[in-house]
Every structure is written in structure tokens, then in C-alpha cells.
Amino acid sequence: MDKVIIITGGSRGIGAATALLAARQGYRICINYHADDQAAQRVLAQVRELGAEAIAVRADASVEDEVISLFQRVDHELGPVTALVNNAGTIGQQSRVEEMSEFRLLKVMKTNVVGPMLCAKHALMRMSTRNGGKGGAIVNVSSVAARLGSPNEYVDYAASKGALDTFTLGLAKEVAGEGVRVNGVRPGYIFTDFHALSGDPDRVRKLEPGIPMGRGGQAQEVAEAILWLLSDKASYSTGSFLDLGGGR
Ligand code: NAP
């Protein structure tokens, strides 16, 4: 089967590393992104250099009209999607719950929970044998925060990833008999620009001493787990989670 992957938030960090690894593994690739055209074009050029057929599509992965257009472009330009990585995510400034605005809470939940649900919906409309598809695999990028709760920092973010994990479990069972596997990865502290959003760009370096393995993780180390879960090597895995937290 031809392998066609959609990576939401594929232009930077973990998503970009996933796109590069997917290129080496023979996927046709859609790099979705939200705002940073230059970053998307850079990753697009890199995956094409590796020989992959690829497109970059700007779309807010948490807005259904934009998700519909994204999937339609993939249908027309790359063929039916076989793999979805729900990677796009956001986080607010470190703070206590009393200080969190309604705007922030809605944004975190919409981006981290509703977006992956919408993208999964439109992937299943194409992948599920129930809908005439040939099957496929979905990986949701969660966080160890779902287990730890992130008190005094961002319990809203941790709760959004907890919701994403429950969605992974339920959806995996819902579509297990329809040729679609659904799994999750839970990264710990990974060196990406994500931490600037929470107000501390050097966060991973500062917290390294408290990580059992004594170091932060690299985006490629998460990408390896994502690509494994998507591959036929993980053919009996669904509703499962791989933690990539260096022991946290
Ligand atoms: P990152 O380097 O900040 O990259 C985020 C990516 O998501 C960018 O490509 C960004 O595109 C895109 N994006 C954000 N909102 C979007 C939206 N609404 N629609 C489409 N794309 C959107 O982040 P990262 O560290 O790679 O994080 C990726 C995922 O891993 C997130 O779900 C995050 O929660 C999770 N995670 C990260 C860590 C960590 O330590 N880094 C740990 C645990 C979990 P633009 O640049 O165009 O906005």
C-alpha cells in the first residue's frame, strides 16, 4: 500500500523530525502548519531533498473547515491518507489555575483536544474499512504531563493531554475492527521551541538534572517512536502509549 502521511504541526520540532524520518521511510508527506511559512518551506525542501513527494499546507488543525480543505488537498495531490500524526499543540504561560483566562483554557482545549478529534474524524472517513477505506494508523502526540498533572505550571495543558489519551483509548477500540490502529506517544522534556510559549525557552536545559536519565530528549527520539507505531512492525498495537520521558 502507498504510504501517505499527514503531520499536523509538521513544520517545527517533533513534527519536523517526524517528517524527515517519514521521508527516509518512503512516505508521501503533508506538512501541516499554522503560521510560520518559512519554517514549513524549510522542512518541505529538506524532505524533497531526501526524495519524498511532499506538500506543505497551512491550516489551523483545530478548525473543521480548514481541516476539510487540508484533507482534500492531500486527496488530490498525494492520494488517500494512510497515516495521521496529531502533533500540533499549544501551551500557555506557566501559572496557577486562578490566573488562567477563559480564552487561554478554550485555546488549549481546542488546539490539543478538539483539533486531534477533528483530524481523526476526517482521517477515518478515508481510512476505515467501514467507510470503504483500506485501513491506516493514527498516532496522537500527548505528554508525560497527562500522568504528572503539571501543578503550578499548566494543569490545563496536562488535562488536555489527559483528554487526548482517553480519546486515543476509546477511538482505538471503536475502530479496531475497521483496519485502523490508534496509539499515543507521551514525550517528556524535549528540546524544541515549544517551551518559549510557556515563558521559559531554556526550560529543558534547566530541568535536566531532575530527569532520571540526566538529559532532555531530542525530537528525533520521539519521531522514531511515532514512525514505529505507524508501521506494520506495530501491527498488534492499538490503544497503547509509548512514554519518551527519560524515566520521568
Ligand atoms: P513546536 O516546536 O512549538 O512546534 C509546534 C508545531 O505545531 C509548529 O509546526 C506549529 O506551526 C504547529 N501548530 C501549532 N498550533 C497549530 C494549529 N492550530 N494548527 C496547525 N499547526 C499548529 O512544538 P513541539 O515541541 O514540536 O510539540 C509538538 C507536540 O509535542 C505538541 O502537541 C506538544 O504538546 C507535544 N509535546 C512536546 C514536548 C516538548 O518538550 N517539546 C513535550 C511533551 C509533549 P506554526 O509554527 O506554523 O505555528
From TrEMBL:
E.C. number(s) listed in UniProt: 1.1.1.47
Residue span, Ketoreductase domain: 3-207
Keywords for this protein: Oxidoreductase
MF terms in GO: glucose 1-dehydrogenase [NAD(P)+] activity
Matching Pfam families: adh_short_C2 (PF13561)
Keyword Cytoplasm: no
PROSITE patterns in UniProt: ADH_SHORT
Family indicated by similarity: Belongs to the short-chain dehydrogenases/reductases (SDR) family.
PANTHER family reported for this sequence: NADPH-DEPENDENT ALDEHYDE REDUCTASE-LIKE PROTEIN, CHLOROPLASTIC-RELATED, RE15974P
Protein name: Glucose 1-dehydrogenase 1
Organism (species): Pseudomonas putida (Arthrobacter siderocapsulatus)
